[in-house]
Amino acid sequence: MRFSEKWLREWVDPRVSTRELADQLTMAGLEVDAIDPVAPAFEGVVVGHVIEVETHPDADKLRVCKVDVGEGEPLDIVCGASNVYKGMHAPTAVVGARLPGDFKIKKAKLRGVPSRGMLCSAKELGLAEAAEGLMELPADAPVGTNFREYLDLDDVCIELGLTPNRADCLSIIGIAREVGALNQLDVNETRTEGVGSVIEDAFPVEVDAPVDCPRYVGRVIRGINAATETPVWMRERLRRSGIRSLGPVVDVTNYVLLELGQPMHGFDLNRLQDGIWVRKAKEGETLALLTGEQITLDSVDLVIADRSGPLALAGIMGGEASGVSEQTRDIFLESAFFEPTRIAGRARGYGLHTDSSHRFERGVDAYLQQRAIERATELLLGITGGKPGPIVEVVSEEYLPARTPVALRHQRITRVLGSEIPVEQVQDVLERLAMEATSIDDGWMVTPPSFRFDIGIEEDLIEEVARVVGYNNLAGCVPNAPLVMRTEPEAEVPLTHLRRLLVDRGYQEAITYSFVEPRVQQALDPEAEGIPLANPISADLSVMRTTLWSGLVPALVRNLNRQQGRVRLFETGLRFRRSEEETCQEPMLAGIVAGSVFPEQWGTVNRAVDFFDIKGDVEELLQMAGRAADVVFEAAEHPALHPGQSALIRLDGEPIGWIGALHPSVETSLDLSARAFVFEVRLDAVTKGRLPQFHELSRFPAIRRDIAVVVERDMPAAKVVECARAAAPEILRELKFFDVYEGEHIDSSRKSLALRLTLQSRSRTLTDEEVDAVIDGIVTTLGNQLGASLRE
């Protein structure tokens, strides 16, 4: 919100400097982003009156003007502007004047003709970025008056960076209320007595979507002169708020928007047919906007229409076909309340962002519409003339926002703020913020005003009291907070330990958006339904991620595109999936690797990372929780992973995640320039560990035996280990798989797997016969169940 300080001070004028005013607003939660002068420094510029214009004798494009600047004899000034004419009033820089850029006006000759000054454009005075000619002033501008004083240019523009909950401060009246409360001053509100109807003409209004539009107000005004020039004071206030003058009807609606915070729109009445119809758009309907852009409407869009079709996108922008022009003589003014959630995101869906949508999305006062239309009528009649008809209003009270009272306890204020604020001061703050505060036994029952959508609980009111009193004015105190020692499950592995492990293994932690691009999501998790956002930041961040890979893969692409050849990233966060009608949030841990196994060095021969490297990282994560022995990597297919290099990770038989190489088609579609390997596991699976249990150490010696069995070439080693462990008696202490051999003396369709078995009894020394029997039993079981044979 950008506004003129002098305009604000007409409403409330505290005895503070501009800087002090900005500090007050910032400390009250209305952060001041910028303070800019409304015009750059210049001097020696007055209001001039062109009393004579002649063609330059030696230059067709130059004019020799006689300009009255209130100093007796008119000045001869040579001018090159094409819009200069006899009788024109324009800013005139006299000899000795200094213009922006330290440009000094001197006596000069242009093509042999003396020139004693300069007629100025808005650009030359720093009031506009571009200008097509001289800046024309009203015919009643007093000749010879200092131009800075005439336009009151010794002023500043203050720009606020408002949070979305403070839509009430997107207007002068809203900011004035805040300044009045902060300085304990009354606000001089502009009150409109109401403009009575002169004619009986009323345009019918029908609202078919009362939930979306609970209140719609309109008025016919006939006989206006739309070609009339907007008064300079109004044009200046609009300019200082960043709005360009576009004619009296549009300027008045924009002025009311800035003054009261109510967006409005004016239709050319003669372009409307059979009444106004507020309804949902029909699928496939089109609308040409005021910008000239043609859009195809969706069935969720709310439109203002007549019987011929849509006229405007409700709360966002009007249509070109019904727009007001200089030839317009009769208009229909509208002022409505649209339910914020029904408007939110619709403008962005069409690549639009307007002053109206910005306010309607955040919430407009639902009881402001009649006041706004009366104010606009009053201003418009004073500028363009015309005859107003009666106000037409359609309202559905049951759908208007309810003003729910909130209880505020005085003791609660003291407890939350840690400072005692007198009852009288709290009452004064609430009343100056336009809240209805009724005293009760232990505090107040407070009803927020209709323009404050953000007051819903007691803490909201406490915040209001604190910021108006001033956070820096709250007395400090030592808090009395009882401390409770929380129990920490001994078997749980802290997330910081897992992070440290991955960092030690060369990973870097990434933090990506929970919102992702639908194309990336579809490529990496096509079987899961992405949850679309109602109000996305952008089209590239429009769905909730169903896998953390949706953020890690684009991060890898970005790094590879910036010549980072070795990338290892991990992330912990939530993924979002639909379960029936609910949204489930699952904490996950995911990683991605690409490039070489080791950083570049001279001490070892490097190689590209492979499936088993990332599998080892996942096994180390599970080992921290003491669950590595309970995990099985089961060959399985995932639509985003390479069919020959992917595995489903199971813990105690339950799926907990996936690991593998990205599918080549996925790498191509996502512009990956290197092979990438990924993993994703449920966070609870790697944080909930198992407590180690102590067993008395055996006093008897252990016996180790190595065996090599020959199995089919496609037989998983894990299956052989699992079968051998199941066949061994309890004296088996450890079983390790340590070698695989394929080659000479082994059939090409088979392979040799080497197992190391450690046997030990707690009660006696084992004999060779007992050990041999155990080994024979294991080999026999392997042969019967897996077709394995002992290698010769």
From TrEMBL:
Cofactor note: Binds 2 magnesium ions per tetramer.
SUPFAM superfamilies: Anticodon-binding domain of PheRS, Class II aaRS and biotin synthetases, Nucleic acid-binding proteins, PheT/TilS domain, Putative DNA-binding domain
Location within or outside the cell: Cytoplasm
Enzyme nomenclature, EC number: 6.1.1.20
Family matches, as PROSITE patterns: B5, FDX_ACB, TRBD
Domain called TRNA-binding: residue spans: 39-148
Residues holding Mg(2+): 454, 460, 463-464
Protein name per its UniProtKB record: Phenylalanine--tRNA ligase beta subunit
Species per Swiss-Prot/TrEMBL record: Thiohalomonas denitrificans
The encoding gene: pheT
